[in-house]
Amino acid sequence: MSRLQDIAREIARLYCPLSDEGIEALSTILQPLKFQKGDTILREGTICRALYFVEKGMVRQYYYKNKKDVTEHFSFEGRIVFCIESFLKQEPSRLIVEALENSELFAIPYDDLHLLMQRNLEIAMLYRKILEHVAISSQEHADSQRFENASERYERLLREKPEIVLRAPLVHIASFLQMMPETLSRVRNSSHPTSSRQAQSDQHDPWWMHAARDPLKDNDKN
């Protein structure tokens, strides 16, 4: 099995089951790309012409507001990243996508995807499932910003996406959670369990809770 078929199979596993024929069809339009840390994947004012599946590394979407960059989204292994409004309308994006780490992505080009969907209902369903996933994720993040306080937003991120807490720079995490870096530092310090509570819960905690007891200390240097 080729590497492109392996990637197509992984995308199907994560988003929507495909038959062997569907896997083969998807693999024919995948385009491998590599980016170094700090590279811009999509520039502001350009059209998002592909969905990008992250096989390795981490990327972020951000925009500028009042001359400050605001992080809107992180994507890492097993996630798809794209600027949804620009992609759907095929109009210039107001968002920027950059690599936070050396990253390997696989592009699913807009034109190739839509041609394939016209003759393959499985691929059309896959695309629908990807859009549903992105819409739900965006709504959950928006609701978190609206209805949760700073501590609750941080705890949700730590619980649901610990990879971001462990790997992304502090300043970008703070921006994503809509708080100042100093506020994030206070929140994460106050969120640590007491020694007695930690001792009682250690044996029941998932693996990432142990890995992320104080995950941002190293990121303070970034």
What does this structure look like?
- The structure is a single chain.
- With 222 residues, the chain is α+β, with helices and mostly antiparallel strands.
- The protein has 2 domains: 143 residues, Sandwich (Jelly Rolls); 73 residues.
- Helices cover 50% and strands 20% of the residues.
- The chain has 11 helices and 8 strands.
- The strands form 2 sheets. It has a 4-stranded antiparallel β-sheet. It has a 4-stranded antiparallel β-sheet with strand order 2-7-4-5.
- β4 and β5 form a beta hairpin.
- α1 packs across α2, α4 packs across α5 and α6 crosses α9.
- The C terminus is likely disordered.
Helix-strand string: HHEEEEEEHEEHHHHHHHH
Strand neighbour order, sheet with most strands: 1-8-3-6
CATH fold type of the largest domain: Jelly Rolls
Number of domains: 2
Helicity, as a percent range: 40-55%
Taking Cα atoms only, what radius of gyration do you get, to the nearest Å? 19 Å
